[in-house]
Amino acid sequence: MTARQNFDKALNELENEILRMGSMVERAIYDAVESLAKQDVDLAQRVINGDRDINYLETEIEDRLVTLIATQQPIARDLRRIITGIKIITNLERMGDHAVDIARVTKRIAGQPLIKPLVDIPRMAKISQQMVKEGLDAYVRSDVDKAKYMCSLDDEVDHLYSQVFRELLTYMMEDPKTIAQATSLLFVARFLERIADYATNIGEAVIYLVTGERFDLNL
């Protein structure tokens, strides 16, 4: 096997690991919001415990990508592939941290009747998960159009965040007893809004990978 074939094989294996990490993060987001909706403390704890695996995988992938730079001295597009991989796992790790933050809210308000049925927060989570999935698909396919479309979904998440903010603020103004829980739910909405921003960063990284140009789509 030639040096070029060895490099491509190693990078393809790492890209598969990045996809595996993405799947773990998608699941963590889903489980965190599910734990909140159902007030399932055990599920919330599993999300918290599972973050160790996400962090470990990020470190392992990053170490291997850096080793490729050191040993193969890639140039041009090959180097962009590696840099893009590092950017993606960094953003995935941050999303995983926010899934943990949501799970911790579940534990904090466990046993309290929810002040309102959760509607927009699960919607935000669903769109955020879709963004992660589509962003990684765009990465694998080097698909700029898909990356741009995925980034456009961030506007929907921002709109829902504003809606949740206004609604919960109204609850707090009308009944001070709701302030503690409403504040916790506002944090959840904010965490999901940030997850969508990190997904947008992945889209930007994919565009950089394909075109070599840098775009700021978090506007």
Automatic annotation (TrEMBL):
UniProt xrefs under InterPro entries: PhoU, PhoU-like_sf, PhoU_dom
Subcellular location(s) of the protein: Cytoplasm
Domain (PhoU) ranges: 18-105, 121-206
Main location: cytoplasm
Gene Ontology CC: one annotated term: cytoplasm
A biological-process GO annotation: negative regulation of phosphate metabolic process
Keyword DNA damage set for record: no
SUPFAM superfamilies according to UniProt: PhoU-like (SSF109755)
Signal peptide start and end residues: none
PANTHER family reported in the protein's UniProt record: PHOSPHATE-SPECIFIC TRANSPORT SYSTEM ACCESSORY PROTEIN PHOU
Family to which the UniProt record says this protein belongs: Belongs to the PhoU family.
Function per UniProt: Plays a role in the regulation of phosphate uptake.
NCBIfam families: phoU_full
Subunit-level organization: Homodimer.
Name this polypeptide is given: Phosphate-specific transport system accessory protein PhoU
Organism: Carboxydothermus hydrogenoformans (strain ATCC BAA-161 / DSM 6008 / Z-2901)
